[in-house]
Each structure stands twice: as structure tokens, then as C-alpha cells.
Design a protein that fits this description.
The chain has 17 helices and no strands. By secondary structure, the chain is an all-alpha fold. α7 (about 200-215) crosses α8 (about 215-230) and α12 runs antiparallel to α13. It is globular and about 60 Å long.
Length: about 425
């Protein structure tokens, strides 16, 4: 019965998360467009992703305090329910959206993003309690594929729906997805450890995830690599990629869409391969991360230096393969390196690192693109990926052969 409950709970988790992700993309597409139509300002439009990133960063820092007090299912359910209620407010606001209401709109966006910062670490931390350890790679690759299919399908379909229906109707569709997602999160059977440990201060709760990362040589190496590669991945943000298509490939914005679709398509194919060869990847998690970094270094250089659109499209497709393998291996390593009751805090710390690095990357690489050209930006990204590979190479003993479970999962302090 327990196995059946876990299988059903895993289905509820991935379907609920898929619907939430669908909604997130649709509401982002509709809001960015609606803000631009009202203000005719690129600055106000770019504030939407900026507000999302900053509030998610703050949420990630504070998430351990919530994780200390509530079970993972409760965090997932109530954060999704909160997002649904704030989105309902956005739906009502969108009916008569005007410039003077923009501050309220950004407030709702910030609240939704803030709650999302709690949901992400809770989801990833819940997976090991629902799946046997030997099937973690398969489960992680399955969830990653689901995320990529969502991205691959929803961006173009969302744009089409936007033209056919308009922003307000898209928001109501998103609201429907959020309601169903909330119900599915409620149905999850949470069997994670719920025993209470001695009361810790808020500061200690926030520090625990960071200390676990620092005390595990494998996690520490992976995390530094993660920061370097997140900084490099800033070349894939919409603004820089748009300039690349125009200045390096001499193509129209249609090719911007083709390249994005090829990237997510490559991620999907990578997910299928990881799922098929999950046992092989399970035995070689550290090696997968290191060699994926070398592949990403090479592909970033080739992509940034070419002027042939079709070659860039092929490279974009190939880029998704090592990226997916690396992502799944990294998530699995984290799940194996932290105790179940502390896992969400580790994910919270990791999310904070990623959001912070991405924020810095957007500003830094945007500045380099504007002042030195897009090819220099891709060279900088290539160097960052290569440094990440060298870090893995020099620390391959810790990366390939992690500490024993007792040492790696030891107390945070």
C-alpha cells in the first residue's frame, strides 16, 4: 500500500508541477506583453523578469526558516495556493490595466515569485522520499524532461494564444492550471521525517544548507562549478541571443525562435537518453558533470564564433544534451549528499546561488555585449565554462569518489 501511495504521490507531484510550470510561462508571456502595450517602455517590460529574479533570490535565503517549521507537502500546497490567490488578483487587475496600477501589478508578481522560491526546493527534496534510491536518476530525468517539454511547447503556444485571445484570457487560463495544481499538491502523501529536533534560531536554520554544501567536498566542487556555469549561461538570455541572431548570424527574429526551440529540443532528447541510460549515469555522476562541462565549453565557443545560421541551430540542439545530463547528475548528487530532513535547505541554498549568479550574469554579460560586441560575450562565457571544467579536473578525486555517506551527510554544523 505504501508503494502504491508513493507512486500516486509522485504522479500528483509531477503533474501538479507541470501545470504550475505551464502557468508560470503563460503568465510571464502575457504580463510582459501587457506591460509593454500599456507603457510602450522596454524598461518597464524588463522589470517583470527582474522582479521575479530578485524576489526569488530573497525567498531562497529565507526558505530554510519555513522548511524548519512545516512539512514539505504543506510548503508545496500552501505556496501553490498562495500563488493561485495572487494570480486571481492579477486576473482582476488585467481587466482594466492602466499605468497607475503598475505598482500593484509588480507587487502581485513579486508575491507569486516569492512563494515560488519555497516550492522549488520543497519539490526536489520530496522526490527521494517517494522514489527508491536506485531509481533517483530515472525520476530526476523524468521530471527534467517534463520541465523541458513544458518550456518547448508553452513558449510558442503561449505566443500564439496571446495573439488569438489576448493577455487577460491567458491569465485566466493560467489561473485554472494553478487551481488544479493546488489540488494535486494537496493530494500528495508526505512521508518525510517529521520529528522535531531541538529548536534552532532563524540564523542557524538559514546557515544549515550552506554548511552542508561547504562540508561536503563533492557538493562544494559542484556548487562552485554551478556558479561559474550559471554566469556563463547568461549568454542565453533573450536580449543577448536576440543581438547574436541579428549581429552574428545576420538573420531576423524568426531565427531567434528557431534557436530557442532547438535548445529545448536538445534538452528533451538529452532527457530521453539520460532516462534510457540512467544506470550508467548513476555509476558515473561526477564524470558526467566534468565531461559535460568540457562539451559545453566547446559548443559555446562554436556557437559564438559561427556566422552560419544552420550550424548555430545544430549546435544549439547539441548544447541541450550535455546540459541535461549535467543537470540530472547534479540534482542526484545533492539528493545523495544530504540527509532527508535537511535536503530542502540544501536546495534552498543552491537556488540562492543560482539566482544570484544569474542576476550578476545578466548585468555583466549585457554590459559586455553593449560595449564590446556579442562575440566577445560568448568568448567570456567559453572561458567561464573552461574554468569550471578545470575545477572539476583538479578536484576529480572528490568529484568522482565522494566521501562516505556518514561523512557526506553529517551534521550541518
Amino acid at each position: 500500500m505504501s508503494k502504491f501511495n508513493n507512486e500516486m504521490s509522485f504522479r500528483f507531484l509531477w503533474i501538479g508541477q507541470m501545470l504550475a510550470n505551464l502557468g508560470d510561462v503563460l503568465y510571464t508571456v502575457s504580463l510582459i506583453t501587457m506591460v509593454y502595450k500599456v507603457t510602450k517602455s522596454v524598461t518597464f517590460m524588463s522589470l517583470v523578469p527582474f522582479v521575479i529574479t530578485i524576489t526569488a533570490l530573497i525567498s531562497g535565503i529565507l526558505a530554510p526558516i519555513i522548511i524548519d517549521k512545516y512539512k514539505l507537502k504543506s510548503i508545496l500546497f500552501y505556496s501553490q495556493l498562495g500563488k493561485t490567490l495572487f494570480l486571481f488578483g492579477l486576473c482582476l487587475l488585467a481587466i482594466h490595466i492602466r499605468t497607475e496600477f503598475l505598482s500593484i501589478l509588480y507587487f502581485f508578481i513579486a508575491c507569486i515569485s516569492f512563494l515560488d522560491g519555497w516550492a522549488s526546493p520543497a519539490r526536489n527534496a520530496l522526490v527521494p522520499s517517494l522514489i527508491k534510491e536506485e531509481k533517483l536518476v530515472k525520476a530526476n530525468s523524468f521530471l527534467a524532461m517534463s520541465d523541458q517539454i513544458t518550456q518547448l511547447i508553452t513558449w510558442p503556444i503561449g505566443s500564439l494564444f496571446l495573439v488569438l485571445w489576448g493577455g487577460p484570457i491567458i491569465l485566466w487560463l493560467t489561473f485554472t492550471f494553478f487551481v488544479i495544481s493546488s489540488i494535486l499538491m494537496f493530494l500528495i502523501n508526505d512521508q518525510t521525517v517529521s520529528e522535531k529536533h531541538e529548536k534552532t534560531s532563524k540564523l542557524v536554520a538559514i546557515k544549515e544548507g550552506w554548511q552542508i554544501i561547504w562540508n561536503s567536498k563533492q557538493l562544494r566542487t559542484v556548487s562552485v562549478m554551478n556558479v561559474l556555469e550559471t554566469l556563463a549561461n547568461g549568454v542565453w538570455i533573450a536580449a543577448i541571443l536576440f543581438i547574436y541572431v541579428e549581429q552574428a548570424l545576420y538573420k531576423t527574429e524568426v531565427w531567434w525562435g528557431f534557436i530557442n526551440a532547438a535548445f529545448f529540443g536538445g534538452m528533451f532528447i538529452g532527457g530521453l537518453l539520460v532516462y534510457r541510460y540512467s544506470q550508467l549515469l548513476e555509476r558515473n555522476l561526477g564524470q558526467t558533470i566534468m565531461w559535460s562541462s568540457l562539451c559545453l565549453t566547446t559548443l559555446t565557443f562554436l556557437f559564438g564564433m559561427t556566422s552560419f545560421a544552420w550550424f548555430a541551430l545544430v549546435v544549439s540542439l547539441l548544447y541541450g544534451l550535455p546540459q541535461m545530463a549535467r543537470d540530472v547528475a547534479e540534482v542526484t548528487i545533492i539528493q545523495k549528499n544530504a540527509r532527508e530532513e535537511l535536503l530542502a535547505k540544501v536546495y534552498s541554498a543552491r537556488g540562492t546561488l543560482i539566482y544570484g549568479a544569474f542576476g550578476v550574469s545578466s548585468l555583466l554579460l549585457g554590459y559586455i555585449t553593449e560595449h564590446y560586441g556579442v562575440r566577445v560575450t560568448f568568448l567570456v562565457a567559453t572561458i567561464l565554462f573552461f574554468i569550471s571544467f578545470l575545477l572539476a579536473l583538479f578536484n576529480r578525486k572528490d568529484l568522482f569518489y565522494p566521501e562516505t555517506s556518514k561523512n557526506a551527510k553529517g551534521k550541518a554544523g
